[in-house]
Amino acid sequence: MSERSIALNRFGLGARPDDTVPGDARGWLAAQLTRYESRPAALRSISATATIVADIGEYQARGRDVRRAGRLQPAEDMAAPINARLPAEGMADAGDESIPAAMAMRRDARRDLRLHYNDAVDARIAIALTSTAPFVERLVHFWANHFAVSAENPPVASLAGAFEFDAIRPNVMGRFADLLLAAERHPAMLLYLNQSGSIGPNSSFGQRPRVAERKRGLNENLAREILELHTLGVRTGYTQTDVTELARAMTGSTVPGLGRRAGRRQTTGDFGFVAEIHEPGTRTILGTRYPQTGGDQAQAVLNDLARRPATATHIATKLARHFAGDAPPPAMVARLEAAFVKSDGDLPTIYRAIIASPEAWAPQPLKFRSPWEWSIAALRATGVQGGVPVSGIGLQAQLGQQVWKPGQPNGFDDTASTWAGSDALMRRVEAAERIAQRSPEVDARALATRLFPDALTPATAEALRRAESPGQALALLLVAPEMMRR
Q1: Residue 67 in contact with residue 77, Cβ under 8 Å?
Q2: What's the CA gap between 335 and 415, in Å, rounded?
Q3: Rounded CA gap, 256 and 141, in Å?
Q4: Which residue from 54, 103, 164, 442 lies 20 to 30 Å from 117 (Cα-Cα)?
Q5: Is 377:13 a contact under the CB 8 Å cutoff?
Q6: Rounded Cα distance, 29 and 57, in Å
């Protein structure tokens, strides 16, 4: 691969026909750090977090209406499939007209939540196809996957896009500590990992007899993932006691207005700290005491975790793996780790260290593109600006990597073994044929030299020359080895 092709495909999201990379490929990448837009045009019509939280509140209110009719489980049990919670319409009491009416209103509210997800996926694809800073957009996707939420139920699905747009994008060019705090406080994260319902056992709310009797207090899910996935990494010396202490420090961090617990009465539309569910007292985590009170306690812990050496190692390893191969080069990991520590987690400093790493410029392909990466590269190759030739949501579902649905808190895997199976490759071939059929006719041989400047192999050039039609040539180009790997 030439350096220009590496800049376009390994660092970026794949070349567009009109992309021009100057001779200084590294300078071209570094310049993107200053022209990145956190709120591009595609997001101007997308609902903000506060609007979506208000809609979730409406959805839950409809659930309570139905539950009051004695037909459903508690509405806050959002983990259960919606169809399992809603009785069939025919089961409603024919003499009680309020029941089907409430059910219909809840279905409408659920439909509205689904629209938020669809709109957000379309916006994400539009940004990826048109951005003039594709290197930074790749980093946005990296961080959204690092702080993964999984859109498996209506509330989290509706907020998954807002999580990326409102928590990740504005902080991707700042400090890691600020990015961490924004991610852990966003309603999508608080709902996904059940932090919104965590109650301090010795808080004023937790001491209420009915609450204490139910023993549904402290939830450790978010605290555990913060230590294991978001900051230190696995097997880095923290203990179960540290997890519990962090969970206690995090109590009070919630989404006021959602659920049936403290703070339900008023919907603020965003993160909120509710003092009456916060566990009082000093916390000790990884040997450090945190005597702060209220929400300052969790913030102090997160700030310290963001600066731990283990966090620098964990983040450096993941970034090196993303850009320089499934087995991250130790020298590059050490270089990124040093940049992290020396800059106090300044993310642009770390990005410049990635650009400066010779391991990331190895001429042979280093990474197998994930379904998301491949589909975006294939669509960018056709030069579309908007109105993609296939359904974006449908395409991701076909390829097996639905947007923001990794199904687990550690996000989508970033290694070839997950994505390079024969069935997955066949799905790409079918998708390439469909994209080619619906794209304007193009000279694939000329296009190939623009997508992979000074990097097209003779074998691919020959295959394109022998294609029986322009459409077949384009489909072949979209599944060529140059397109599959970066």
Answers
A1: no
A2: 21
A3: 28
A4: 103
A5: yes
A6: 43
How far, CA to CA in Å, does 340 sit from each of 114, 383, 442? 38, 36, 45
- Interior angle at CA 182, CA 179 and CA 188, nearest 5: 125
Interval 147-204: pLDDT, tens: 999 998 999 999 999 999 999 999 999 999 999 999 999 999 999 999 999 999 999 9
Q: Which residues contact 339 (CB under 8 A, 6 or more apart)?
A: 316, 349, 350, 352, 353
DSSP code, position 47:
P
DSSP class of 360: G
d(CA 3, CA 362): 9
Paired tokens of 35: 């022209």
CA dist., res. 324 & res. 478, Å (int): 23
Lowest mean pLDDT among 58-62, 149-153, 218-222, 400-404: 58-62
Which tens digit of pLDDT belongs to each residue from 363-397? 999 999 999 999 999 999 998 876 666 778 899 99
C-alpha 138 chain-centroid distance: 11
Q: Which residues are CB-contacts of 391 (< 8 A; sequence separation ≥ 6)? A: none
Is the pTM here over 0.85, yes or no?
Answer: yes
Show the DSSP H helices in 307-442 as ranges: 309-324, 330-342, 347-355, 371-381, 392-399, 416-419, 422-438
Show Cβ contacts of residue 61 under 8 Å, excluding neighbours closer than 6 positions.
none
Is residue 354 within 8 A of residue 408, CB to CB? The reply is no
Nearest to 270 by CA among 44, 57, 45, 42: 57
The answer to whether residues 126 and 403 touch, using CB atoms and an 8 Å cutoff, is no
Q: What is the mean pLDDT of residues 240-247?
A: 98
CA 449, CA 38: separation in Å to the nearest integer? 31
The three state secondary structure string of 410-442 is: CCCCCCHHHHCCHHHHHHHHHHHHHHHHHCCCC
DSSP class of residue 195 equals G
pLDDT tens digits for range 251-263: 999 998 887 655 4
| Mean of the per-residue pLDDT values of the chain | 90
